[in-house]
Write a structure and sequence with these properties.
- The chain has 349 residues and is mostly helical.
- It has a domain of 106 residues.
- It is built from 11 helices and 2 strands; from the N terminus they run H-H-H-H-H-H-H-H-E-E-H-H-H.
- It has a two-stranded antiparallel sheet.
Length: 349
């Protein structure tokens, strides 16, 4: 009995590792495919004086001024940071889950709590990587804003060296406060995803129940008096499930809602990570609440509420497509896991 439980735990651990590796690979591939969209988004967020145009127009402008490969500038540092960040997140999440759950059935509430804690740990450990890759990604850009101080880093290591030398070690954690707030973005996304999913399943169930009569299975029961078989009619519920297209659309809409809600904080995060503006230079190290509010007020004062959402189109195109793809993979992996577990149980019996 003990050996079977141990085998089950080891099998579950291997499955979690494989799933996490697939997710890391998928996110890296998606980031590579949609990288130009992220470049357009970052330019519009950081460069206040760049006119807010459509994403294709911004990309064409960048290519015309800086070259064909400009939209992919900083790709390697970003992919490296993404892989490290995903590793830290999933390692922390699974380690905490193993300690807290201890072989018991995990709930959605526990997973959300663990996700937030893992997100906080991830932010504190990997923010220096994101600060460096943000600056490398914007190095050599043709800014419209004259207040932006250009950088001259030779690579990742040199960027770390220059930031520590010129701005201090704590400058590597610029934008930590808004990053910690953005930890709740996946929770918002998951909440909307589950809500949309429940509503759609309920609607499908109602439609099927109206279109089709309740199915019956003829079974038999033995009469204790006569010993004869008596036919028994047992109603069978008609269950429906989401299609791949349903999952894709729900994932896209949920991510769009979460991204729109938190986008102003993402704009502040990018500005603080870049950290090359001449305005408000003092006490900006960790992106405190005071500095976050200062940047938000300045944006609204200069450009109105629209200024908080510059680059939202590119961000939605990138993250929505990526998130929808990841949700699709998640649903398929979950279904495949239960199928395999069911087959194994049937083989044992």
């Amino acid at each position: 009995m003990r050996s079977s439980c141990l085998d089950l735990q080891q099998g579950k651990l291997k499955l979690d590792i494989r799933r996490n590796v697939l997710i890391i690979k998928g996110s890296a591939t998606a980031m590579t495919v949609f990288f130009p969209l992220d470049t357009a988004r970052l330019r519009l967020q950081v460069d206040e004086k760049r006119k807010s145009k459509t994403t294709p127009a911004v990309l064409l402008e960048i290519i015309k001024e800086e070259g064909l490969l400009a939209p992919y500038r900083g790709w390697f540092p970003v992919i490296s940071s993404l892989c490290c960040s995903n590793f830290v997140y999933f390692y922390t999440f699974n380690s905490l889950k193993a300690v807290w759950v201890k072989g018991q059935h995990s709930t959605t509430g526990k997973d959300l709590v663990l996700g937030v804690v893992a997100g906080v740990v991830n932010v504190l450990l990997t923010t220096p990587l994101w600060v460096v890759n943000t600056r490398l990604k914007l190095q050599g850009a043709k800014f419209r804003n004259e207040e932006i101080i250009p950088t001259n880093y030779k690579g990742i290591v040199d960027a770390f060296h220059q930031i520590i030398r010129d701005e201090g070690v704590l400058a590597l954690w610029n934008g930590t406060f808004p990053s910690l707030l953005l930890v709740f973005n996946p929770a918002i996304q998951f909440m909307f995803y589950e809500g949309f999913k429940r509503k759609l399943l309920k609607k499908q169930q109602q439609v099927f129940s109206e279109l089709f009569p309740i199915f019956h299975h003829p079974l038999s029961s033995v009469d204790t008096r006569t010993g004869r078989n008596i036919p028994v009619i047992v109603p069978v519920m008609l269950y429906t499930e989401l299609t791949s297209l349903d999952v894709f659309i729900i994932g896209a809409v949920a991510k769009a809602v979460a991204t729109t809600i938190t986008y102003p904080m993402q704009t502040v995060q990018s500005i603080l990570r870049f950290g090359r503006h001449r305005l408000n230079p003092e006490n900006r190290t960790l992106g405190s609440l005071k500095n976050v509010l200062h940047i938000l007020r300045q944006r609204v004062k200069r450009f109105g509420l629209v200024g908080l959402y510059k680059g939202l189109e590119a961000k939605l195109l990138q993250t929505v497509l990526t998130a929808a793809l990841m949700f699709l993979v998640y649903e398929k992996l979950t279904a495949a896991t239960f199928t395999v577990m069911g087959l194994k149980k049937s083989q044992k019996h």
